[in-house]
Amino acid sequence: MRRREFTAFVGGALAGWPLTARAQQPVHIPRIGVLIAFADGPARIRAFRQGLQERGWTDGSNIRLDYRFGVDSIDRLRAYAAELVSLSPGAILANGPLALVALGRETRTLAIVFVQVADPVATGFVASLAHPGGNITGFASYEYTVGAKWLELLKEIVPGITQVAVVRQQDNPTNEGAFRQIALVTASMSVQLTSAVVRDSADLKPAIEAFARKSNGGLIVIANPIANSNREVISALATQHRLPAIYQDRYFATSGGLTNILRA
């Protein structure tokens, strides 16, 4: 999802407010809730605010943004989702599938716009890309079938791999969808698959170290709040145990992930 696309979408909706109504009611300004389930939330907020400002919307002046960050805690996300819904904003931005799930539990009427969500049709968040239906719409980040491409790429770079662990978050619907696609092609590539499911940050090190005892192994790390906030830890463990790794997003590579391929 590009920042300009999303801010244009929200800015266009806000532009629908009649100018006369805004002049007659100076005290009331549009309100947008923002629920983020990613470690780099502040950077995302800065980009979002900048995009809005480029279109004439300034937080605290003619628009109000209410932020909540629920990184690494499903319970916290659910509590924050309830808080944002209780504020009755005009729309809510859901950053990530877990944020979207939490908000979907709280409201069927408030408009929810999602970003950083994979294959929303397959996951059941929307009816179709052309006609999402209900109160949810947004921007899909990728389709689950790319999971098979991750495995193909890892095998192409390091042909000798016979064991692959997929690091994914428990109860994360998009992680589960991508894992299923990876599992479909493992037999054809002569690879044995391990599901390294983590519930919180404390699970990461034991899961990776247990897998590292196997020979000819590699990692596929699917983006999620736990992996994102611990990407340096994952990269360090992969380097330590000489595990070549494929990551979903660029910021894993820039946080040291590239060395996991170069030193494997």
Key attributes of the depicted protein:
Rossmann fold; 13 helices; 9 strands; 264 residues; 2 domains; 46% helix; elongated; 19% strand; 4-stranded parallel sheet; alpha/beta; 5-stranded parallel sheet
Rounded to the nearest angstrom, the radius of gyration is 20 Å
CATH superfamily of the largest domain: Response regulator
How many individual β-strands? 9
Approximate strand percentage: 15-25%
Q: What order do the helices and strands follow? A: HHEHEHEHEHEHEHEHEHHEHH
Task: Give the class from helix and strand content and strand pairing.
Answer: alpha/beta
Helix fraction bin: 40-55%
> Count of DSSP helices?
13
Assign the CATH topology of the largest domain. Answer: Rossmann fold
Number of domains: 2
Describe this structure in words.
- The protein has 2 domains: 3-140, Rossmann fold (3-Layer(aba) Sandwich); 146-262, Rossmann fold (3-Layer(aba) Sandwich).
- It is built from 13 helices and 9 strands.
- Residues 19-23 have low confidence and may be disordered.
- It has helices spanning 3-15, 19-24, 41-54, 74-86, 97-106, 120-123, 146-157, 173-185, 204-212, 225-229, 231-240, 250-257, 259-262; strands at residues 31-36, 64-69, 91-95, 111-117, 136-140, 163-169, 192-198, 217-221, 245-247.
- It is 46% helix and 19% strand.
- The protein has 264 residues and is α/β, with parallel strands linked by helices.
